[in-house]
Amino acid sequence: MNTLVSDNPDILELQPRLIDEDAAVRRIALIELADLEDPDALPWLTASLGDDPADEVRAEAARLLEAWEEPEVVQALCEALSDRDLKVRVAAAQSLSQLKTAEAGRVILPWASHTDVFVRSSALRALRELRLPASAAVALAALNDTQASVRREALGILGWLKQHSALAELARLLRDDPDTDVRRAAAGALGFASDDSVLAALQAALEDAQWQVREEAATTLGKLGLVPAGPALVKALDDDYWQVRLRAARALGRLAFPAALPGLVELLEHPISNLRKEAALALGELRDPAALAALEAAAHDSDPEVRKAVRIALTQLQGGGQ
Question: Residue 296: its pLDDT value, please?
Fold first, then answer.
């Protein structure tokens, strides 16, 4: 490692401990160095990330660098995604995911095509919330990656970028991908467009073999406000999994879909309180007086959160809600 050069005496005072033979001493010294928040400390932190012989010191350096957006720091974190120790790789990936600037994204972008699957998926995850237009092409290509984790992260980018040119590919993955998590991510990524192809893909996903995908499809349909999906969502109120029923109930409330009333009333007596609560809230959004008697009966529910939801719903039905 290089000798520290700084006008800050606190930094210079730490130097002997930063080269101590004891890894635990070096790690604590790095933490103190980072706490000074002095740019002069960056060369030492990045050098520790790349060169320190102790895995725990390199991992600490990766964690400590998450607040810095300088290109040399981002580059060092990207290189650490290939570290020999998993703890270091995970810490570097987490720090990269906290970055916020387009400049950082431009450094990360080439790593999304790396030969290593962990590096590719971590780079794509870091790029997601940066909304860097240049990442769209890389993400679109990654939808054909052999690794499910890479496809999943690529879907997140395209959803955040609201990439309409990718809709057909998103729908294809929702329909055909063999990985449950990828199909679920595709259902979520479609939440920026409400054309007929999206409606068809999400409605079909309500019949997916895995409940997690059905749950996400119901959630996205509600977010998009796709009223034509009402009948399919009503059917989902009878899903074998209560999690799907809950999201369908929430979606039907947002759609204010009148034909959902009987199914929602029935859910007011479901043994799972979260589902009863969601059904009550949805009935309030329907604002149908036909639900009044069922809600009044539910006003004495054993769960306080359900009773609160019923009070909200009754207020809406009686004209006091907006």
Answer: 96
Q: What is the pLDDT of residue 67?
A: 80
Q: At what angle do helices 86-96 and 71-80 cross, to 10 degrees?
A: 140
What is the model's pLDDT at position 132? Answer: 93
Residues 6 or more apart whose CB falls under 8 angstroms from that of 76 comprise: 46, 49, 50, 65
Q: Which residue has the tokens 């002997």?
A: 16
3-state helix, strand, coil in the chain (%, to 5): 75, 0, 25
The Cα–Cα gap between 147 and 89 comes to: 18
pTM score, whole prediction:
0.88
Q: Are 205 and 217 in contact (CB under 8 A)?
A: yes
Q: Distance (Å, rounded) from C-alpha 278 to C-alpha 299?
A: 14
For residues 236, 240, 246 and 250, what is the CA-based torsion angle, rounded to 10 degrees? Answer: 0
Contact 292, 261 (CB under 8 A): no
Q: What is the token pair recorded at 226?
A: 């796709």
Q: Which domains does the chain have, with CATH numbers?
A: 190-322 (1.25.10.10)
Residue-wise burial string across 161-175, b where 16 or more C-beta atoms lie within 10 A, e elsewhere: bebeebbebbbebbe
Helix axes 55-64 and 71-80, enclosed angle (nearest 10)? 140
Q: Which residue shows structure tokens 């054993």?
A: 302
Helix boundaries (H) for 52-166: 55-64, 71-80, 86-96, 102-108, 117-128, 135-142, 148-161
71 Cβ neighbours under 8 A, 6+ residues apart: 103, 104, 107
Terminal alpha carbon distance of the chain: 64
The amino acid at 26: R
Structure tokens at 61: 């350096």
pLDDT at 4 exceeding the cut of 80: no
What is the C-alpha separation between 87 and 201, in angstroms, rounded? 39
